[in-house]
């Protein structure tokens, strides 16, 4: 956890690598994932860089892999996942891989082309068989009807002049797509003026498109006509509607013989198709085993060459120079990676790593694990921390689920949430391996540890509230007893329990006494209780945020801000709002029903809110007879002093820092900083003692809070804005924490409404009908509990808790003006590519 207190210390380094060792060295750095490279050729076009040809080769290989993968998916061949990602291939293996991919692509292309041709032939023969079978049915039906003249003219064997004299009818047979049949019929009617006799029959089973494999539905038709001119027109219409025409002999014997021949050819062609399909399956299955490994290797190669394009060539063209940000803790790993890269290619000249000084703002890198990553993402969503700034994520691990639980406090609902989070944590390995594309599920899974802690904390606050599905648990026995006899209880619908007589002076062991569950003034009591708790937690949370600014001031060597900013801020907050919290505790302790002094009985307890308003307005209220306006002696004078000191803190916050900087500016000349150019440290001296080259972050960054280099007028404007914002925000932010009370009350009331109006419906009858009612009522109650109270109310409480951290807490010390450290890491690149593919 210590690594999360602030971001990692970064160093700007220069890499001097021999060209022959550049590929293997960058490959090792990608496996290590500890280096963020800078572009040393920002003005050079992407197509004019040194390794653009290699990138194009990788693009071509990626295209081939995409084609192969599409063909594998088309045939439904399973692509096994690799247990361990292969390393980037060396330059010699790249040539072999390129040739292998070329051969594989050509083989699959040839197989696909042959399969399409065979399927096209099979489709044509199938359509011909259907045409012959359907036309035979047409002619048979005509013979049965007794259309002798038509039949004779259709199947007559007479030829030449004799056929023409008898006015013989001709016909055209074929298939057309089913959705085009109505338009096809209308067009034939129009061109022939009704002189075409059309018969059609739909195919029962769909056919397969040879190119796409999709199902197509077609209809067989026979068009009867008279005259060669009309025949020509009909053929043109068929061509326009993409209808396939097939020869159909007029003789019944010839049609039967032709059908037999077509069926024989179909059987032979089907056998060839099966053999081709089996061979294609074997080829694709063998390719699928290596497809994932090839894809990973090509993506790594492409990433390496993209990174090498960021390097600069020295004037002698014998050395590649690169610049990168490296966490100082990872400098030994980077040097080891460079040494391994040089050894892998057999280079006799080692690569060098040289740390240089710069005045540029380094990137922010917070090292996280699977537990802390979710909380760090919550902070980064607001803004990435400035370099070496205090990181709020460390404290958010506790404060975030706790403030959520204050609003979501219910033992039952918290248990449901904790079980859901615990299930995701226990099954995280198998769930992560599924790689779901559901965005909502991925958000829940990424925050599984947050959900688990929110559920556990909600169970604790539910125990304190003594609330489980809107009911209370009497585990330790109530501290109240009923002092009335049975006769009094029977005659009165409601009775008041006086703490003098009914309270045992021993509080309930933990949380709220279960007696309040049946009290008529339950909401009034819980309102006061939770409202005060909200203010107490809010003031403590804000004071903690203001105190965290001291850590930043001390680290960035701006200790004057401790006296000129922190002290007046904390004094202003403490004398006003911490004093209000003190009055709450004093009221709880000092006023009691058993107090002998009348002024300190419960009837004389003053309102803390009225006292605070009178304190700010310097006004007074007339107390009731026998009571006191204030809680203790000299409180009025103390409050005046507190308000006066708080008002004096405002000009200190406004003018202290600008006047101090104005007075000391002349004595602080601007230091000379390196610009981090590639020519600095060009002596190529190998760094062996890492302790001597670590940069000093204190002199480089100010955590996004510093305005020392600006003119005095700009400093005054900034300070005025910050002062006004802080003074006003102490009031608005304190009131903002009342959302803890509001959402907690709303959650408890919704839970009670669901119990009384839904589940109680099934508890009224005590016979078998009541059992059925209870079953139905419980189903609805459980559904509404999960959907409304756990999901919707949980999301609402989550968003309000997020706002309390982002605005009320982090605004006191957090600038969030940094930029994230994005190292060159193969693992991250591959994950991004997979998400892009999905």
Automatic annotation (TrEMBL):
Swiss-Prot/TrEMBL keywords: Coiled coil, Hydrogen ion transport, Ion transport, Membrane, Transmembrane, Transmembrane helix, Transport
Pfam families: V_ATPase_I
Record flagged with keyword Lipid biosynthesis: no
Broad class of the protein's primary localization: membrane
UniProt KW Transport keyword: yes
One GO-annotated biological process of the protein: vacuolar acidification
Any one GO MF annotation of this record: ATPase binding
Topology of this chain in the membrane: Multi-pass membrane protein
Location of the protein in the cell: Membrane
Transmembrane segments: 393-420, 440-465, 533-554, 566-586, 598-618, 638-656, 774-792
Gene Ontology CC: plasma membrane; vacuolar proton-transporting V-type ATPase, V0 domain
Similarity section: Belongs to the V-ATPase 116 kDa subunit family.
PANTHER family: V-TYPE PROTON ATPASE SUBUNIT A, VACUOLAR PROTON ATPASES
Physiological role: Essential component of the vacuolar proton pump (V-ATPase), a multimeric enzyme that catalyzes the translocation of protons across the membranes. Required for assembly and activity of the V-ATPase.
Protein name: V-type proton ATPase subunit a
Organism of derivation: Bombyx mandarina (Wild silk moth)
